[in-house]
């Protein structure tokens, strides 16, 4: 059973993983009186469960631990969901560790800065969330563009359909109108891209069941 302690309720919840129980005791003391919940553990599986189930708003991981290091845990956490992540160390990070952290978009802090980090927690997490949001927007734009190109190819493959009328609650429109909406990623075009994706997803699921 992992060592876990939950402090008094606050606005945001931070999970901290470290293999040193004495340091986790210091974390508990530092957290007292601050408007932050702390959950502490020595178990990678435990902290990743918090991430997956949405129990924490951010994860602070020790850089160097036996078995799985903090950067590997952060990478796994980021693959589960978008979450603020910070790496702590009592040592000087190596060039390779700094390169890995940069690839993950993570900052490595000294452990003795934890008190200041918790004081500035809201600001730090806001910056992390802003970076994550930008990454999601870029990925969504790329995905929409790929689906838009696929849908346009299908629609333009049958020229005689272009003047066909589609009736909707918002009024009638032609396939040609829809093509222009998709090209411009206007609201109606985006809605039909989503419809196209849902239709294909359903067909693929049915195919897998056969």
Short description:
This protein is of the alpha/beta class.
Fold topology:
Blueprint: E1 12-17, H1 21-31, E2 36-41, H2 44-52, E3 58-62, H3 70-80, E4 84-89, H4 95-104, E5 108-110, H5 114-119, H6 121-156, E6 165-166, E7 173-174, H7 175-183, H8 187-209
Parallel strand pairs: 1-2, 1-3, 3-4, 4-5
Antiparallel strand pairs: 6-7
Helix pairs in contact: 2-3, 6-7, 6-8, 7-8
Describe the structure.
By secondary structure, the chain is α/β, with parallel strands linked by helices. It folds into two domains: 12-119, Rossmann fold, CATH 3.40.50; 139-209, no CATH class. 55% of the residues lie in helices and 14% in strands. The protein has a five-stranded parallel beta sheet with strand order 2-1-3-4-5, sandwiched between helices. Strand 4, helix 4 (95-104) and strand 5 (108-110) form a beta-alpha-beta unit. The relative contact order is 0.09. Mean pLDDT is 76; it is low at 1-10.
Which CATH first-tier class of the largest domain would you pick? Alpha Beta
User: Can you write the helix and strand succession as a string?
Assistant: EHEHEHEHEHHEEHH
In helices, the fraction of residues equals 40-55%
Overall 3D form? elongated
Domain module tally: 2
Low-confidence stretches: 1-10
Q: In the CATH scheme, what's the topology name of the largest domain?
A: Rossmann fold
Q: Supply the number of helical segments.
A: 8
Radius of gyration: 24 Å
Taking the sheet with the most strands, its summary is: 5 strands, parallel
Rounded average pLDDT = 76
Could you tell me how far the N terminus lies from the C terminus, measured between alpha carbons in angstroms? 43 Å
* CATH superfamily descriptor of the largest domain: Response regulator
In spatial order, strands of the major sheet run 2-1-3-4-5
Number of strands: 7
Proportion of β residues?
5-15%
Specify the CATH architecture of the largest domain: 3-Layer(aba) Sandwich
């Amino acid at each position: 059973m992992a060592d876990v302690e939950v402090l008094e309720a606050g606005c945001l919840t931070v999970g901290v993983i470290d293999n040193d129980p004495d340091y986790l005791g210091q974390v508990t003391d530092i957290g007292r009186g601050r408007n932050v919940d702390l959950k502490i553990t020595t178990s990678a599986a435990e902290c990743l469960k918090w991430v997956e189930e949405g129990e924490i708003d951010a994860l602070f991981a020790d850089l160097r631990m036996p078995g799985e290091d903090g950067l590997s845990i952060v990478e796994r956490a980021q693959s589960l969901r978008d979450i603020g992540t910070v790496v702590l160390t009592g040592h000087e990070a190596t060039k390779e560790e700094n390169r890995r952290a940069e690839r993950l978009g993570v900052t490595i802090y000294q452990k003795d800065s934890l008190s200041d980090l918790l004081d500035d927690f809201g600001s730090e997490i806001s910056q992390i969330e802003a970076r994550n949001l930008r990454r999601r927007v870029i990925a969504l734009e790329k995905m929409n563009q790929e689906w838009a190109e696929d849908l346009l190819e299908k629609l333009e493959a049958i020229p005689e359909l272009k003047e066909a009328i589609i009736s909707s609650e918002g009024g009638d429109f032609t396939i040609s109108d829809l093509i222009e909406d998709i090209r411009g990623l206007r609201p109606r075009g985006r809605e039909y891209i989503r419809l196209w994706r849902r239709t294909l997803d359903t067909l693929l699921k049915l195919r897998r069941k056969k």
